[in-house]
Design brief:
Radius of gyration: 15 Å
Largest sheet: 4 strands, antiparallel
Helix content: 25-40%
Order of helices and strands: EHHEEHE
Strand content: 25-35%
Length: about 120
């Protein structure tokens, strides 16, 4: 007998009309790492069977050498510290292109998860 496995999906936010020039680059890096965040969500689904749709706003700063700093959850529709810690831990390992002129880029990104 085969087990039925529900696939968790993550939706990436569309680009705003007047997006920052680096927005597309940031979105591309996030897209590459989407599977890591899906695994966090799949773990949450094991603990919360009714978590069919979840939205999480994650904020982080891109600093020198494209390193991610100050990663945090600004809001989450699912109250699950293990889930949100998993997300933050994943995002903190990502690397982006260097910010222009040695500056920093502050990012707030909405992630939508669905079964």
């Amino acid at each position: 007998m085969r087990a039925l496995i529900a696939v968790a999906l993550i939706a990436l936010a569309p680009a705003p009309a007047a997006a920052h020039p680096d927005a597309d680059v940031i979105r591309r890096v996030i897209r590459v790492h989407r599977g890591e965040l899906q695994r966090c969500y799949e773990g949450a689904l094991m603990r919360h069977r009714g978590a069919d749709r979840v939205q999480v706003m994650i904020a982080f700063t891109i600093v020198a050498r494209g390193v991610v700093a100050d990663t945090r959850v600004r809001s989450s529709s699912l109250d699950d510290a293990t889930f949100t810690t998993c997300l933050v831990d994943q995002v903190a390992t990502w690397r982006f292109p260097d910010p222009p002129k040695g500056g920093t880029i502050s990012v707030s990104y909405p992630f939508r998860f669905a079964r």
